[in-house]
From TrEMBL:
Residues 139-389 form the Bacterial type II secretion system protein E domain. Belongs to the GSP E family. It holds the Pfam family T2SSE. InterPro entries: P-loop_NTPase, T2SS/T4SS_dom, T4SS_GSP_E_ATPase. GO terms for molecular function: ATP hydrolysis activity. This is Putative conjugal transfer protein. PANTHER family: TWITCHING MOTILITY PROTEIN PILT, TYPE II_IV SECRETION SYSTEM ATPASE.
Amino acid sequence: MPLGNRPMSGLQERLYASREGRDYQEAVGIFNKEEFFNQIRPQAQKQIQTRFTLQELADRHSPVLRQKVRAVVLEMVEGSWINLPKPTLINLAEELVNDLLGYGPLEPFFTGEMAQRVTEIKVLRWDLIRIEIDGKEMIATDENGRPVKFRDEQHCRDVLEKMLAPTGRRVDLSSPRVSARLPDGSRLMAHIPPVAVEGTTMSIRRFRMDMTMDKFLEYGTLNREMADFLAACVKGRLNIIVSGGTSSGKSTFLNVLASYIPEDESIITIEDPAELRLQHSNVRRLEARPANVEGQGEITQRDLVADALRMAPKRIIVGECRRGEAFDMMQAMGTGHDGSMTTLHANSAEEAVNRRLVNMIQMADMGLPYEAILGMIAGSVDLVVQLLKDRTGRRRVDHICEVTGLEKRDTGLAVGIKKIYTWNPEKGDWERTKEKFTKTDRLALYGVELPPGVN
């Protein structure tokens, strides 16, 4: 009898009757997955809570835990729906395990074989999910090529709530948008109605943990000479901005650059939300916090930069400058924290230093005249690395520029820059420009030499 001595539902009775002589295909045809999940999920949840401790269930990524839970769930499924094909039973059990331990239909993109390849997950609505693999976006499908989707809008909301539970963030009618860092470091941005017109939407940026400079070279993100040049600039404590468009790989690139920082130099990272995983042992990580329901307790990146200046770091890394924290970042770069780094959104190095940074510093509302802001940028930033995502989906360096100071142009005063490396679209390769790199004396203070041919 299905599930012990409990009374059978209408669906169970129909399926059970089919076992007693009704046509097998009819039994499969009348199967309703939604009804199945509604009936068996609470029972499976109770079984798991009975058989496993809270400590065991805390590590939902544990392969051992998933294997044990899968065995329990499969036993229940087989006991209830013996009329269905074995592959169907296994798939149902796996889907139920993903629901109980993970993120439902999104779980394979976090813990499955595709987890390391998927860099972005987009839930356009409950029945339409897209993913990005190796820079190319496509509709998410399962191992059989069928589109991956939630059971309904409520299921989508339930998974979103599960994602947010350990983060302390919330989403509801009074606050229908939320940004959060998931436990694995992924960045989540979600909206619900009425802001999201067609139902719950989610954008999840998966932060790859396996990226190194060697892999950048393998993927064609830059060439060896450029990699050696940037390594020298990091070791020589130049202040670096990594700029680029959305999804151009700024955070990942910054993470790899930071691996060149010597181990004896202390680092403080400041993010909102936190996603950097520096390959460094001497790191203190700070994360901004939004206000609570009462509108109290907000901690901004500006607050944390101010805190960091009192914590005696050698370098400060702001994951992304968006607003007034750019003013504090420029101050840190210009007052004894050489070798600091940050990222920002810009379409070119020129735009980064002469427009985006200027606008963000103005947001700090410090009353600085325009010329003083330009002087602050020119005196603080040494290098700008511009990234882009090209039409093929490849993320690569487009140009590397040295900041040369203030200069007078026909349009007025500006922060001067010159390209050291640039992408040549005709050759399909990078080239070293004829511009001389002038900060070799800065590098020499730390015993660093540029690779041959860069001077």
